[in-house]
## 1
Amino acid sequence: MASSKIKIIARLRPTLPHEIDDRSVSVQNSGSGGSIHVYTNDGNKASKEFKFTNAYGADSKQEDIFHNDIEPMLPYLFDGITITIFAYGVTSSGKTHTIQGTAEQPGVIKRVVQALCNMIGSHPGPDISMNMQYMEIYKDEVYDLLVPNRELAPKLDVREFEGKVQVPKLSRMPVHSEPQFHTIYQRASNQRSVGSTKLNSHSSRSHAILSLHIDMPDPVSGKTLTGTVNLVDLAGSENNKHTGNDANRLIESSAINKSLSTLGKVIDSLNRGESRIPYRDSKLTRVLQDALGGSSMGLLICNIAPGAKFRKDTVNTLNFAAKAR
Ligand code: ADP
Ligand code: MG
């Protein structure tokens, strides 16, 4: 395949009410073939330009991203394909807004669940079902978010069985309807935000992976065929050295740095068609090994926060994207 296996797009979030609009980041040709300019904001007009397949400006709508970059992939789920969508960026860049969104501006998750419920409803054949799994990766360990009490939840083993990477004890719940999904998802998401640190909430320090599996009979073999979509809200990509100096923070930070840099290397190796892919170098890439390789589709959304305050992180995010491309 000539084009990237994992498509990389960027989204700049708007300036928030308490922030100053210093115009240090801008998106040109928002939409298809956009580029992001990062201005140094130091008086000289030197700017760096980064090109993306799609780059969305501060005025983009949740619906735009879903419609352009996500909806077209969904029918492939019914061929048993795995789709993985990542939100990457510094804390407060809009990852959770993009992936989860709000009641007024629902994000990728709600739109995908709605589309899948509709597609299953209109698909011929009665034997299609949807299941969900929801895990958190914190300090390079996997935890189940679909448990009654996350704080008591044990670390889960990741195993390779019959050529597939699995988390055998991760629970799986059937999805019957949109409202029923949202009840489970909301309860599980609240568990992710337990505890807080000096700068960031706990949720910024872990990766959350929501998986929706569609099981259907394979028309040829009669066996079960599964299409999966993984929606991944990654840990904040900031340099975490300044979030406090206790031992736990340092372990958190090095786990985040290691997993995000491994993710970049895996995407880069896949897009280059290399034979050795370093999946095993982090739990994040290990659990997503089957989702990233083989016959799968991927989208990496680079979320960008405006303002000179974030300049260093913005350049790091754009460099990550450029390297992974
Ligand atoms: P992250 O998950 O990357 O830490 P959030 O998604 O929590 O960032 O976004 C930080 C803040 O910015 C939140 O208050 C969120 O509502 C707001 N925000 C992010 N993206 C947008 C957007 N596209 N439009 C409006 N508000 C946004
Ligand atoms: Mg977040």
## 2
Amino acid sequence: RNDDLAATLRGLDGQSYGRYKSLTGDWPAGDATLTIVRVQADPFAPPSRVRVTLPGAAPEELTTTADRRRALAGFLLRRLRRALRGTSLHVDAGGPEVLERSAGRVAADGTVTIELGVPMPGPKRRILGREAATLLGETLPDAVADLRWSVFSEHDRAAATGFVETVEDAVALRAALADRGLVAFVADGAVLPRRSGVDDRPLEGATAFRSPESLRVTIPTPNAGDVTGLGVPEGVTLIVGGGYHGKSTLLRAIEAGVYDHQPGDGRECVVARDDAVKVRAEDGRSVVRTDVSAFVSHLPSGEPTDDFSTTNASGSTSQAASMVEAVEAGAGALLVDEDTSATNIMIRDGRMQQLIETEPLVPFVERIRPLHAERGVSSVLVMGGSGDYLEVADTVIMMDSYVASEVTGRAHEIAAQGRARVVEHSGFPPVTRRVVDPSSLDPTGRQGKRRVTARGVDTLTFGEQDVDLAAVEQIVDRSQVAGIGRALALLGEGVLDGTVPLAEGLDLLDAELARGGVDALLSGGRDAIDLALPRRHEVAAALNRLRSVKVRELLRD
Ligand code: ADP
Ligand code: MG
């Protein structure tokens, strides 16, 4: 066949839409290759998938480590998205987080691969050859050529390098946490608040973060040198303060700190351990055979609480389940905000204790210390409404008009004076390990076709089910949802064999993702969708919300 794609497209003008399929395959485009990976069946279907391969295009010093390659890919995607603005071509460059994603990859040999969504024009189910030729023969190659030129040019080379170095520094900061006994780090000068709930750009005119001297630490980074800021210690940390003083904003920045952020975001040097997990109440969710006995001693229905299932959890039981599940999946720190917690799982005051003697709930305040002492899981908790936690906190940070100070000493004094109630520390039982039935993770839909689709950041379609992920707050990108769906399918296809506990299955998944990257979630060269690598914690969270999931066995120590 003619190897001129544009000429071929012009030749197809007016033919039936289905003939676009004949273009599937590789097309030379200068020293790049353009691959038509998948063609949509009709003009209303999701866009066709086109891959551009640029051999050896990446500057060598920006490809020396996997983190540098991920960052460079992130930079290139963002540049390309900007260049293609106003066209019908779509590139999945993501939000402020720099995630490993299928849309853009940089290989160790410098080969750059970019995948785009291209809606093939043909509104009347006839090929619009000239228009398609312009899209794939001019718009796309021109943008790619510009991108290539710019990465080598003086000006953009600096921007690319800055982007890569920013990500590299965040990785270094995160890696330094464990040795210093920290859960998170918030750099001085960081801008934490976002413009709005639907706009994740930094708030203009915000008060820059400044660490309290007593909790200030300095961490060296490879590019920015020594970075100074707040070190949030392991153990139990409380964030207190008046309403609207910036408590939740600080916690949200810590939640987001499991990801690296692009330059200009304001949170470039805000990091958290990568096993820090936000948990919250979520009434209505399903719970499948979870041992919630650490938080629920008995139920009025007489159901066992060490093997608890429901299709419709209450606020408190949902939060109890989410906490236990997070620990089961390997969380090293729980992040909890009073704004999204069930009051009765957090606190119970002395008066209520007197009035209600048959309360089945064991409030978190009684478990939070043993959770750390016995299970090694730290907590960072926003709590402005109850003083019960003052005596159990190792560290108390106060937010006052967006300014942080440490008030641990004063908090302990107050706790020692007027004890509202005596907190019993009753230990934290070993977490029961569930063995999940892999056949219950099958995404095959009714028509025998595999259905794994992200619908925004809040919903995963998995087979015939819609999994509600709205309360899994550290999911930040719809491509992560697609990645989570694929990861669940992978767990079901053999990573879980019906005998290994879930946590071990997640270890195996992590190993496979570390080895294969996003390719581990894609099956074969024709399989090309926008997805981003998820954390094990979000994969587990989705599994736990899958209503069809079956647990074969509970393993107890
Ligand atoms: P709290 O949880 O203490 O009630 P929030 O964290 O929800 O308070 O913050 C209240 C408001 O203040 C939000 O609109 C937030 O965007 C804004 N805000 C938070 N931190 C800052 C800051 N450093 N500078 C300016 N505004 C901020
Ligand atoms: Mg709040």
